[in-house]
């Protein structure tokens, strides 16, 4: 059985580029939302003529499309993801642009569909601008207090900001001139089965424990390691919401 230090070292050494979570197989699990984002996105894409995927990550979800629209573009801001996304999206003929999260470098009214899975921020004014009249925005987003059990274990009890909450997203969409046509929310069970999975997760999903460093949190990680060994897992809950909006 690997020691605590060996697990820390393993979790700290796994590359964090892209949004491929296959490394976690057998080490951590997360329930998926009942609505099936990838399926919904594919359905919308099949009837679109010009579509944009905002903050595509490594393009892993977009790459699952079997019927891409005639014009397909994607943006990504994090340089390590760009090479991964370019490779994943090449078979679709997608046009990939490196762009800041709050900027969509396209002409107004270009797309009849804009999608985004887990955006760092949603630039609602930009989304509304690049949508054509009658166009729609479909997005699965991380809700307020996601994985707060892990945050609180390592940092102590933290206030839950509503900045990422569904109500804030709805208000921002409406302020940008969009009509919200759908909203669903779910809390999803997560389980971490070893401390290496926790370390890799915190390095990859950097907003759960801002500024996370293994040595800074070594003592708390040791306590969490002991708890996982005793209880066989650490349970947390991710918060997700699905929002769909239309430009009239």
Please give a structural write-up.
There is one protein chain. This protein is an alpha/beta fold and 248 residues long. It has one domain: 3-Layer(aba) Sandwich (Rossmann fold), CATH 3.40.50.150. The protein contains 8 helices and 8 strands. It has an 8-stranded mixed beta sheet with strand order 1-7-8-6-5-2-3-4, sandwiched between helices. Strand 3, helix 3 and strand 4 form a beta-alpha-beta unit. The mean pLDDT is 96.
What's the topology here?
Layout: H1 4-13, E1 28-30, H2 37-46, E2 50-53, E3 71-76, H3 79-89, E4 95-98, E5 111-117, H4 124-130, E6 131-142, H5 148-155, H6 166-175, E7 178-192, H7 195-204, H8 218-231, E8 234-247
Helix- and strand-based class?
Answer: alpha/beta
CATH architecture: 3-Layer(aba) Sandwich
| Count of β-strands | 8
Strand order of the largest sheet: 1-7-8-6-5-2-3-4
Describe the structure in brief:
InterPro entries: 23S_rRNA_MeTrnsfrase_RlmA, Methyltransf_11, SAM-dependent_MTases_sf. This protein has 8 helices and 8 strands, in the order αβαββαββαβααβααβ.
Keywords:
8-stranded mixed sheet; SAM-dependent_MTases_sf; Rossmann fold; S-adenosylmethionine-dependent methyltransferase activity; transferase; alpha/beta; 248 residues; 8 strands; methyltransferase
């Amino acid at each position: 059985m690997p020691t605590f230090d060996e697990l820390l070292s393993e979790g700290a050494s796994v590359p964090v580029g892209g949004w491929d979570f296959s490394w976690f197989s057998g080490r951590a699990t997360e329930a998926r939302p009942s609505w099936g984002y990838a399926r919904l996105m594919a359905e919308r894409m099949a009837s679109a003529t010009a579509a944009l995927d905002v903050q595509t990550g490594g393009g892993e979800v977009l790459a699952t499309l079997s019927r891409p629209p005639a014009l397909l573009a994607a943006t990504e801001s994090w340089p390590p993801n760009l090479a991964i996304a370019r490779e994943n999206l090449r078979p679709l003929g997608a046009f990939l642009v490196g762009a800041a999260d709050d900027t969509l470098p396209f002409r107004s009214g270009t797309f009849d569909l804009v999608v985004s899975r887990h955006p760092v921020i949603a630039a609602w004014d930009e989304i509304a601008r690049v949508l054509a009249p009658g166009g729609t925005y479909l997005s699965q987003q991380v809700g307020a207090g996601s994985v707060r059990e892990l945050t609180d274990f390592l940092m102590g009890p933290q206030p839950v900001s509503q900045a990422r909450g569904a109500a804030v997203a709805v208000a921002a969409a409406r302020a940008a001139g969009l009509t919200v046509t759908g909203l669903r929310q779910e809390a999803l069970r997560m389980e971490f089965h070893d401390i290496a999975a926790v370390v890799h997760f915190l390095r990859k999903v950097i907003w759960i424990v801002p500024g996370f460093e293994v040595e800074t949190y070594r003592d708390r990680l040791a306590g969490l390691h002991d708890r996982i060994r005793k209880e066989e897992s650490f349970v947390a809950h991710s918060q997700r919401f699905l929002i769909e909006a239309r430009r009239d």
